[in-house]
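In the previous chapter we treated chains in isolation. Here, by contrast, the input contains two separate entities that must be folded as one system, with a combined length of 232 residues.
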Amino acid sequence: MIAARLQAQAFDIAAEQAALLAGRTDLGAAVAFTGLVRADDGLVALTLEHYPAMTLAQMQAIADEAAARWPGVFGTAIHRHGRLLPGEAIVLVVTASSHRGDAFAAAQYLMDWLKTHAPFWKREEWADGTARWVEAKVEDDAAAARWD
Amino acid sequence: MVQLVYFAWVREMVGTDAETLALPAHVTTVAELLDWLATRSDGHAAALADRSRIRVAVDQQFAGADTAISGAREIAIFPPVTGG
């Protein structure tokens, strides 16, 4: 089971990993990936818009596909929305399995697909008062496509 | 009647986040919908000018140009996604 969550508020990485692992003694590996707002030159904020009627269902479909591909992997995938500042966390993927290979692979798959197949759009605000929508990157599509 | 919803710069260029429209009988696919919508205003035309930068979901499922829209309740139009 990999559970997807969508929220505006910040998440606690240690608490999320502890909750995932609570009571388990059969797991030998846990991987935690956090995506952050990077302060590119003059960036003051990043707003994540999303499609409320679709986003969580699409995130869970991606999580379910990862769970089907790596049946021994357990996990949590959390994506934030709203206006975030440089240094804040945007997305968290925690995976756990009996051995590290599957946990690493499932975490990478989840991130590649959350970036390219979940309905979020990033809007950058700059110090000079301008704003622009982030363009999708071909390398992100290529990263997602390698799992096909 | 179908509910159309727009996101990101498509929403800004169209000038609204949603509108409810009765579609003409000849509009039966995503591609035909985009062609028809582009005739509705300068904002719609500008937003939809480059179809390679437009993505669509029909009733919350990603769709292609040939996807049928008959009976759809909600059609979302937006740029390529940039989450993560």
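The longest strand of chain A covers residues 89-97. Chain A has one domain: 2-145. Compare these points with the single-chain example from earlier in the chapter.
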